[in-house]
Design a protein that fits this description.
alpha/beta, 30% helix, Rossmann fold, Dna Topoisomerase Vi A Subunit, Chain: A, domain 2, 30 strands, nine-stranded mixed sheet, 4 domains
Length: 707
């Protein structure tokens, strides 16, 4: 049997057609029965069943099938091939007559299976299954034999429809889809009777994996219980799962009331408004289990009068918190780029000055938007990116992403318009901000970037205190898990001469809480070539290879830069430390030039020029001053270098310099600008005049910025 939508006598006359999957279409309904004006939307669903050669139609505005086909000059018989359609409807009519039932509706599940709704003499609904069976004289059998479990779908579960609403019955699914245009599904056997757990099977979960799921349950105990069963099965599989309680928009909803009852009561237009409220009040689903007979209902947020729960004893809490290792659900690890960016977790990327940490994040984001590999590492989860940045402006980010082959339409960032900036002054964006979470909901990113991470800490948090940073990072952990994305927080390496894992700025809890840690450094062996390394210093499993790259100007647009990925290497933190030690030995083996070209001497003269009475400056502040005066971020061991030049400085210029344990640090000037001392008071550099000898103008002229 073959079917051509464009040449069939019925379907060829339909308009505003959009294909929604294999043998499924949506189009405008040609009937005026329930449309005041021409149907400008796509209210009519059309599907073709190749096993029976039948066409099934359903108008979500409620138009009668006979009226629909007659509107384009056809008859019901035109919907059925080889006479089998007549056999189907004849079988349904015969069954209704033989059993004293009234036909209600028919729902197609595919592969020749249909679920038929009847009403008995008391008006109560009842359902029967019928499927194509060539061994039967009628061509159909009234049973469910051979049926593969699948959800009833109003709409489409294709990739361009990421959001799904789960309801309890086919009629409710049709109602939701008709009113909202959002795909709605229901289990083939609803939520009735006691053993509802068997009514949700893994085939349903497979159909909804990766979707944004809302569960809208009926107003009865079985509906609430089944909604929790659905949530338990979907958490960790769907992108997100939220619960919708009909009582939040219809407090007078009768027992067993559902969304179709709401639509019948208020009409479609008002119901659509109430759906907006349902989305706003939907609550994240939380796994609920019964342990030793104790159950705490957390997932379905009921009105306050229904939330009465007993206070748990310590013994009951202990039972709830414990589980056997055999009961741990195995979901497997998932990544964007394995093993650097795990899904549902967060990573930290810290960098030395001048190596382009934000450019690195931009280049990675570009690959994510297009699903492109990173030096052969597959992008396992392509998608959208959400960027929070307080250091680089959006235009820089845009140029870098585009130059790295990214899709700028798939990246959202904070607006720099005046109205947005005014709002940001009033509403600080922090990890625990509801606004940040709402942004994640709106964008639905697979990758979220915060740059730099200390700027998004809640007010009053000291980033150097372990107990404070751990609590401050808790929202990051939750957001990554709840919204099934990866969050990358970016920061600066300190200048401490220590292992890369301990160069991360702030408390070690930043790296401790992260599931992946990367340190970005200049390759000590390739400084002239300006090649940099991303060294994977932490992973819950085996760390990845080092990623080599360099920053290049964008051809034809030299004001902006891009990342050129150079390769993957078996280069570890230990290799970097070895290279650093070798470079320092080479420096120690050379005679330190006792001239004003020495960067330490330049820094001392610059500080003494602006602080003629002498200055006591913290060790870390002196390093920053050296970088500012010389324009070089090269690492130099300051204390050994000072010991080499101190006698020469005293003899030649009457300047005394020494390193000692820090006492009280005071403000100091550098290049005419007042500087506040760093909080770190472990060591300080003391600079003073030992004799009343003027610093020679020749020496001063050698200091950058003093010529």
């Amino acid at each position: 049997m073959s079917f051509n939508f464009n040449t069939h006598p019925f379907t060829s006359k339909l308009t505003n057609v959009k294909q929604r999957g294999a043998n499924r279409w949506e189009c405008s309904c040609p009937c005026t029965q329930n449309h005041k004006h021409a149907d400008k939307t796509q209210s009519l669903s059309v599907s073709y069943d190749p096993t029976t050669d039948n066409i099934l139609i359903k108008c979500h505005a409620g138009c009668d099938s006979k009226e629909i086909v007659s509107a384009v000059g056809c008859t019901i018989s035109d919907l059925f091939g080889n006479g089998q359609g007549h056999s189907l409807m004849n079988s349904v009519s015969w069954y209704a007559s033989e059993n004293g039932l009234r036909f209600g509706d028919i729902y197609q599940y595919g592969n020749g299976y249909f679920k038929v709704r009847f009403y008995d003499s008391d008006g109560e609904k009842t359902f029967r299954w019928i499927h194509a069976d060539a061994t039967k004289k009628s061509g159909y059998a009234w049973n469910k034999k051979g049926f593969t479990p699948r959800l009833y779908v109003a709409g489409s579960l294709t990739s361009d429809n990421p959001m799904v609403i789960v309801v309890e019955g086919e009629k409710d699914a049709d109602t939701v889809y008709r009113i909202t245009g959002i795909t709605a599904v229901s289990a083939d056997d609803g939520a009735t009777h006691g053993d509802a757990g068997k009514k949700w099977v893994h085939e349903y979960t497979d159909q909804l994996t990766g979707k944004i799921v809302y569960i809208l349950y009926d107003n009865d105990e079985s509906g609430r219980n089944f909604a929790q069963i659905e949530a338990n099965n979907l958490i960790g599989k769907a992108t997100s799962v939220k619960m919708m309680d009909i009582l939040t928009v219809w407090p007078e909803c009768p027992e067993k009331g559902d969304i179709t009852d709401l639509a019948d009561t208020f009409g479609d237009e008002e119901t659509k408004k109430k759906f907006d409220q349902l989305f706003d009040t939907a609550t994240p689903a939380i796994m609920e289990e019964s342990i030793n007979g104790i159950t705490v209902r957390q997932a379905t947020e009921q009105p306050a009068q229904q939330q009465a729960q007993k206070e748990l004893t310590p013994a009951e809490i202990a039972k709830l918190l414990l589980q056997n290792l055999s009961d741990v659900k195995e979901q497997g690890k998932r990544y964007i780029f394995k093993p650097y960016l795990p899904i549902g977790k967060f990573s930290i990327l810290n960098a030395d000055p001048g190596v382009g940490k934000t450019k690195v994040a931009s280049a990675m984001a570009a690959l994510v938007t297009t699903g492109s590999p990173l030096l052969g590492i597959k992008c396992e989860r392509p998608g959208k990116v959400l960027l929070f940045s307080m250091e680089d402006d959006a235009e820089d980010f845009k140029h870098t992403v585009r130059a790295c082959g990214g899709d700028v339409t798939q990246i959202a960032t904070i607006s720099e318009e005046d109205d947005a900036l005014k709002l940001l002054k009033k509403h600080k964006l922090t990890y625990d901000s509801p606004i940040v979470e709402e942004m994640i909901k709106l964008v639905q990113p697979v990758l979220v970037i915060f740059d730099p991470y200390q700027k998004y800490l809640p007010k009053g948090v000291d980033m150097n205190r372990s107990n404070e940073t751990s609590d401050a990072l808790a929202p990051v952990v939750r957001l990554a898990k709840q919204y099934d994305c990866h969050i990358m927080i970016i920061g600066h390496n300190t200048k401490a001469q220590t292992s890369l894992a301990y160069k991360f700025m702030g408390s070690q809890d930043f790296l401790g809480e992260a599931r992946s840690g990367m340190s970005v450094v200049r390759d000590p062996e390739r400084v002239r070539e300006q090649e940099n390394l991303i060294i994977h210093v932490k992973s819950n499993n085996k760390t990845g290879k080092a990623i080599r790259y360099r920053i290049e100007s964008i051809p034809g647009n030299e004001d902006y830069a891009r990342i050129e990925w150079l390769g993957l290497e078996d280069y570890t933190e230990a290799d970097y430390a070895k290279s650093q030690r070798q470079k320092l030995k080479e420096l120690d083996g050379e005679k330190s030039p006792l001239t004003i070209d020495n960067p330490i001497v330049q820094t001392i003269f610059a500080l003494l020029k602006d602080n003629p009475d002498g200055v006591a400056i913290g060790y870390e502040d002196f390093k920053d001053a050296k970088d500012e005066v010389t324009g070089s971020f090269a690492e130099i061991r300051i204390e050994p270098e000072i010991s080499k030049i101190s006698a020469w400085l005293d003899t030649e210029y009457g300047v005394g310099v020494s390193v000692r344990t820090a006492s009280t640090l005071k403000d100091y000037y550098l290049k005419g600008v007042l500087h506040r001392p760093n909080k770190n008071k472990d060591r300080q550099v003391l600079i003073r005049r030992n004799r009343n000898v003027d610093i020679q103008q020749q020496a001063m002229s050698g200091i950058p910025g003093n010529k």
